[in-house]
From TrEMBL:
It comes from the Bacteria. Belongs to the 5'-nucleotidase family. The lineage of its organism: Bacteria, Thermotogati, Deinococcota, Deinococci, Thermales. Coiled coil: none annotated. This is 5'-nucleotidase/2',3'-cyclic phosphodiesterase-like hydrolase. It comes from Thermus oshimai JL-2. Residues 1-22 form the signal peptide.
Amino acid sequence: MNRRELLFLLSALAGLSPKALAQVLENPSKLYDLPPYGEATLLYFSDLHGQAFPHHFMEPPNLIAPKPLMGRPGYLTGEAILRYYGVPRGSLLAHLLSYLDFVELARAFGPLGGFSALTALIRTQKAQVEAEGGKALVLDGGDTWTNSGLSLLTQGEAIVEWQNLVGVDHMVSHWEWTLGRARVEELLRRFGGELLSYNVVDELFGDPLFPAYRLHRVGPYALAVVGASYPYVKVSHPEEFTEGLSFALDVRRLQEAVDRARAEGADAVVLLSHNGLQLDAALAERVQGIDLILSGHTHDLTPLPWRVGKTWIVAGSTAGKALMRVDLKLKRGGVANLRVRVLPVLANHLPKAEDVEAFLEEKTAPHRDHLFAPLAVTETLLYKRDTLYSTWDQLVGEAVRATYPEVEVVFSPAVRWGTTLLPGQAITYDHLYAYLGFTYPELYLFYLRGEQIRNVLEDIASNVFTPDPFYQQGGDVSRAVGLRYVLDPDAPAGRRIREVEVGGRPLDPNRRYLVAAYGGRLQRVGEAKPGYEPRPIHEVVAAYLKSVGRVRVLPEANVRVLGRNYRVPEVTG
């Protein structure tokens, strides 16, 4: 694929300003009707996190990279990502890729995603491919069943039913397992597709629970889809959810799965992965015989495929805001070429899937008053994604400290999911679940010594800023409201955190501090506050929102970063 072809792949989206988009949307076929290409089409989405309804999702203002990984896909934001892909600022593709001009563009283009529009788009694309004699597979990159109101209130059942309506062929997994092993296995029996995973095995005997791959005939060729689930489930979540299982990263086992698929006649091998973009790039250098990796987990979007060694990598975005269409021209023994298109899920402009509309109406009817009643109005932008800080986490910290004034530091988990609320938008319980949709939502109050707090910060920094993707085992940096510090991401492990302050005073290593935390296991290393009974974090925040009516979060980063241009977006609204 030469530079001219790559630029052509971007041209359909990159130049679409709001005015141009309005003209195009009079004839949406200009965006979504694609000429046939190749023999196989992969319709791919990832990291949906149960978001059933149209919403906004802002890309991170900052993605701080370890120095050896700077400047590569997965660590590009703002102007840098637009320059890398040659995308004009203010265009539709820029809105999907970058936080720049977010509020203005969100209002111009409207909300994205939602089950109904995404389903209609998948069905239309699949029908186009099959009408032209091609084969289309619908592939789900994982993190689909959980972290939304509809998911929590139905224990994932409604999301699986939607997958069956849309016709998902294969999926992989991560947050799904926070529903608990028994529930996951029950839902998989109802799932009409197939979960593939080379690395979900019995912890004691090492026996696989699921097929590692599946072969598909594509005309004269055979295409293998290999599945890779998130390898650090037991590190990221309470162990009781996955008792008896192992998810360990195993390069040898993955190589064996690829080799077996080749031996059974696969001409091309696609890895459907929930490893994250950086780990997938590292695997592409170590595992032979993978033609294409469809990468999930880190919520990245790659408008052009990333070539690592002999392997193409395509990342599938998040929250249902885009559908990736990957067309493969096959040959004996591999992929001759490919075409990648980002298909934006423009909720206000795509046709709706009427059966999905009826399905959502039925599923939400018992919960409508709970999910969609306004709790408060935000006067400023509320967002989640960033390496170190977000206005949403700031709001949660303020809610916890208003409810429990004795708390000095509030730790908030740095998960990548969570939609975005525009200034003037009402905050509903459905929005709260999009940010706080844990199956283990308890807010804990406990004591940590100052030295423990410093060690926690160092451990998190060591995880996030290690230059070796094989040791990156989490999301962004956990937020800490009430605490300030200096971060040196390039310092050796154990020396990245400096000048820690709590309440404006230097951290005392020997003093006990009352800390609040949720969505993790930090409370296990502390001393529980006597007489306190843990409450779900979403209940704490909902009560706070009802009490204040309106919220205005003024962005102010609590971390100073050495050696990087770190900044938070300006207040809008």
